[in-house]
Amino acid sequence: MFKNTISNLTRIRQVAEVLLRYGFEDVVTTTPLRRLVSQARRLNWQRADRQVFETTRWERVRLVIEELGPTFIKLAQAMSNRADLLPEALITEFEKLQSNVPPFDVVVARQIIEEELGQPISEVFSEFEDVTLGSASIGQVHKARLLTGEEVVVKVQRPGVRETVRSDLALLHELVRLTAGFLQKQGLSNPQDIVDAFERSMSKELDYTAEARSMEQFRKLYADYTSFYIPKPFRELSTARILVIEYVSGCKITDKAQLLAWGLSPETVAETGMDIYLTQIFEFGIFHADPHPGNVLVQPDGTVVLIDFGMVGRLTKQQKYAFAGVFIGMARQDARSMALNFRRLAITAEIPDMRAFESDLSQLIEDFATLDVKEMSMSDLADALQTIIYNYKLQVPGAVFLILRALVILEGIGKVLHPNFNTFEFVRPYGAKIIREQYSRQNLLSEAEYTGTQLLALLQTLPSDVRQIVRKISKGELRLKFELVGYNTLVRKADQLVSRTILALLSVGGLVFSGLSLLGRYSPDMPYHRGVPEITWWSLGATGFILLILMLLGMGRREKG
User: What would the DSSP string read from start to end of 82-138?
Assistant: First the structure.
């Protein structure tokens, strides 16, 4: 434990120095991180070449993240989907981050597979390719063939990646603790919650069995679909560190030339892909959250294949209805309906001025209502919605931003394949379908049943709760707890003032005592220096020391000011 503490301290000092190198001295000098960086190093940064300031502050944030390594990069990539927390300019920079990592030695990969399976590779695979199909910060992928003849791909986790991520997460928690005040002043109200959510996400990503379960869930949901296919995971050959999946061939969905060579209609392929994705969101409430062209394949018969289920988003039934309601309200040019559905969608929505909120939504509707269908862009709409969410500090489910990001990606794919592709035209019928589902007899009965159950539970517990309160009042045991917020700074300043007043009184007392000591009559044993009693010198020395402390405190206050 002591070794880990020293390691974290060293790493935090390195982080502080990186922040200084990129001109974030305010982050260091206004937080407890300043204790870890000597004054000499700060002065060295101040005298250094300041070319770093030719870039924007947000660009420098990205440069810092890149230098700090893979875990920080993955956090920034995750945060690039949270427009409710970060300004658009910073999100744009985070979207530039790449976590491409060279593959690790295939000998090590083979060893990991054999350790996880508890048997030699030759007893599981008849063929195993040493050249990787792909490599990332968490693991890499090899193509292989089972003894039964089935072609598969094997995802192998990097050696030591769990320990690295665990160490970096501990470091992130400590950094947030040290810089929480600064981050909150920058508008990031819940940095600790963000790190906690990221930790949960990374824990899932480090467990390949979670991805296998997601794939199986999608396979069940789409078992009857002939135009959509999800590769089969081999659970019996998979563990937390390796994942064996059926190999599926095909071309990228954006390879228009290959689609035409196979006699497929690119327009039909684009429509099929969008239909599949909107079905995931508006019918099942569970969706593949990373549909970039490399993860969407098309087979010669036109079947669309999704791969890489490491990132999956989920919406509850109520969130699904609220999200659809936002789009439906916009289609009907009803700003009030949009505002109400935003509030239903938000986890916490403390909007101080609903009229201003509705006015901004009304302006958004007007901006898009005047556009021709061909001019409409999902990217522009997503940016506008995310700006409103950020400006009003609405805490909405992270899945909402994953959906908006995915729709933008799919729109880009669609425009490559379909000259008249318009995302809104695809979303519209799903919105109508959601309205019918929301107000269907079955759903209304379900809601009434849920409300009735909640009311019955309240009625069952209310009498006993009331009796308990009355009993405490009659016995004089009722206690009211008040929590005062925002007084810490005042208390701290009062404490500093009292401390300095005491020191000032001590110094005045010391000076008075020193003066009076000159008038005293002492025994012949009292030593004198330069005609002044030694007790006077001691008194003056103590008073000088107290005055020095007061001066240092005053200088420290001016530095902070």
Answer: -TTTS-HHHHHHHTT-----PPPPHHHHHHHHHHHHTS-GGGTEEEEEEEEEEE-SS
Task: Tell the residue number behind the tokens 């009229």, with chain if given.
Answer: 355
Tell me how far apart the alpha carbons of residues 491 and 394 are, in angstroms, rounded to a whole number: 32
Residue 26 has what pLDDT? 55
Same domain for 541 and 395, yes or no, is no
Q: Residue 140: enclosing H or E segment and its boundaries? A: strand 139-146
Beta strands in 385-469 (DSSP E): none
Most confident of 75-89, 253-267, 283-297: 253-267
Element spanning 288, H or E? strand 286-288
The catalytic position among 168, 255, 290, 360 is: 290
Confidence of residue 240 (pLDDT cuts 50, 70, 90): very high
Q: What percent of the chain has pLDDT over 90?
A: 21
310 lies in the same domain as 384: yes
- For the segment 388-400, the average pLDDT, to the nearest whole number, is 81
Q: Are residues 353 and 431 both part of a single domain?
A: yes
- Alpha-carbon separation of residue 224 from 219, 227, 268, 382 (angstroms): 9, 9, 19, 32
Written as six digits, the tokens of 131 are: 């050249």
| pLDDT tens column, 447-477 | 566 566 666 665 667 677 677 777 777 777 6
The domain total for the chain is: 4
Residue 224 among the catalytic residues: no
What confidence category does residue 544 fall into, taking pLDDT thresholds of 50, 70 and 90?
Answer: confident
d(CA 485, CA 206): 40
How far apart, in whole angstroms, are the C-alpha atoms of residue 64 and residue 315? 34
| Domain that residue 209 falls in | 101-247
Tens of pLDDT along 73-117?
777 776 766 665 667 777 778 777 765 668 899 999 999 999 999
Task: Let me know if residue 336 belongs to a domain.
Answer: yes
Q: How far apart are CA 514 and CA 527, in angstroms?
A: 16
Bridge partners (DSSP) of residue 154 are 142, 244
DSSP states of 25-52 as a string? HHHHHTSGGGGGS-HHHHHHHHHS--GG
